[in-house]
Amino acid sequence: MTEEQRLFVGGSWVEPDGGHYEVIDPATERTVGWAPEASRDQVHAACAAAREASGPWSRTKPEERAAVLARAAELIRSRFVEYADLARAETGATAGTARSLQVGVAAARFQRYARVEPAEWAIPPQINEAGPMGKAAVMGALAVRQPVGVVTCITSYNNPWANPVGKVAPALAMGNTVVVKPAPQDPLSVYRMAQALEAAGAPPGVVNVVSGRSVAVGEAAVDSPDVDMVSFTGSTAVGQRIGEVCGRAIKRQLLELGGKGTAVVFDDADLASAVAGIGTTFSFYSGQICTAPTRVLAQRGVYDRLVEQLAGYAGRLKVGDPSAPDTVVGPVISAAHRDRVESYVELGRKEGATVAAGGERPALDSGFYIAPTLLADCTPDMRVTREEIFGPVVCVLPFEEEEEGVELANDTDYGLIDYVWSADVARAFRVARQLRAGGVGVNTVGRNMEAPFGGFKKSGVGRDVGSYALHAYSEVQAIVWPG
């Protein structure tokens, strides 16, 4: 790609006030394309366009909105390989990940929200005695989901397809309009999503996309008076700033923030399953995912074997060209992020951790690569144990008894997704219920895509996915009448 991408505002493709900037392939360090840099005024214009389109779109029949989403899913599938190649080039994800977990999941999510679900439900009637509020009566009630209005969707760089669509599809299905502000590292895929929705029949202003490297672009998308809700995926630090702005204006928020996923591995665990699950941190998005089991608590009786097997697993993974079919670990998103992750590995050494695998930069001609790294002999107070590294780095520390394992697992600022491995299912579920996390995987890192997703503590506010996303992007209205 060499063409200069335009912004999508109010149904028109417009030239950006701030010019264009390079989007770099993390594997080759070559130019993928040129992304537009919006001005603050252009972001506010996008929000105003979404406000203007909000009323008509909210009154559109749910079946018609669903049909737009279904057509978008088909259009994405029709250009599947092209879109996957772009996603791979922008993010450095392996070809398999770009196809199945980026573009494939995006199409599936549009299709998921193309089915109409009930937006109202009856409340049991209540018998009221005569009094100051009127005569005795049987009061009926109905709860109705109504659209919030204009939703700003600020998305993460690790998945420029599934993450935006996970916000946009349920928001549109509920009758909201959206302004999407993609991550600056890989916005081109998000504009392809907008093209698909435009071709699918989304009216002008229903979907808007504005991008830029400047912090002012995101700030304008949050502070615009036309915006009713902000849905954000990203760092806890940025989420805190968004929360402050939204709090002042009483705007609705859905925040999916950082994570330091803890895997509690008991003595009786199936080690092969645990190693394969934890090992996804090394390969899946090269560890750039907030749900990764990056903090491993191994019961003393299995600690040495787990470290040995994880080290062997990490050493066998092929690091290299994401387009090669046998590559398992691609690059991280940028040189700056590679430096950040490497600084954490060095910090771990200084703190007393043992580098059991990796720890060095792979000898490749280009690209922002980091070898899958295992840090053993960690302690609870180390920064590498407590802070989100967001790279292919796993920290392992021991525990003795179940109670200590639970205590250590909860000793963190984060609480997105934790994991428990044990052959004793009763114990696994007992421990799961004690973990302060929005989700817990029992003997798996797999996901149920209808289960609620979100975090405790500094990992976020709110829940989405499945029907929970329809609740997230709606207000609930009560209608009451005398029966």
UniProtKB/TrEMBL annotation:
Kindly list the residue ranges recorded as spanning the membrane: none
- The answer, when asked if Oxidoreductase is one of the entry's keywords, is yes
| UniProt xrefs under SUPFAM superfamilies | ALDH-like
Q: Which keywords label this protein?
A: Oxidoreductase
Q: Name one GO molecular function term.
A: oxidoreductase activity, acting on the aldehyde or oxo group of donors, NAD or NADP as acceptor
Is Oxidoreductase a UniProt keyword of this protein? yes
In terms of domain of life, where is this protein from?
Bacteria
Describe the family membership recorded for this protein in Swiss-Prot or TrEMBL: Belongs to the aldehyde dehydrogenase family.
Name of the featured protein? Aldehyde dehydrogenase
Q: Which organism is it from?
A: Streptomyces lincolnensis
